[in-house]
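note to self: dont lose this again. the chain is below, predicted strucutre after it. 137 aa total, dont forget to put it in the shared folder this time
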Amino acid sequence: MSDLVPRPANLPAATGKPSFTRLAARMATLTASALALKEGLWALKRRMETDADHADMLADLCVTAEVEPRFTGQINEAGTALRKVAEASAELARAADQVQHDSQGLHDAHQGEYRGVYEAVNASGVRQAKPGFYRTR
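---
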């Protein structure tokens, strides 16, 4: 059984017309989620490194106490596995950092390109055509 708990998405509903605000909200949500993931993964890395260090200390104490070598070997194997988890979580954190950076860039570009149009349309009070009306085939 897994310790992972599924979490529902916090994205705005996907139904309805495409809109400037919906896309902006989704990009902000993606950016915030990537940031939270990245921070959680760095915390996991630190925790796994600490646990691996403790496993090494315990193995040293077991050697000093002349504990059965196979048990000391298992403790060393656990420490090695914890270090591998720390390395993998660091790699994943770097990937999450890239996702955060790229989604923030997309959000900023979207805001720069369309914020003025969105505000002008809302300020005009004129009802606009449905999305896709001006599409050419």
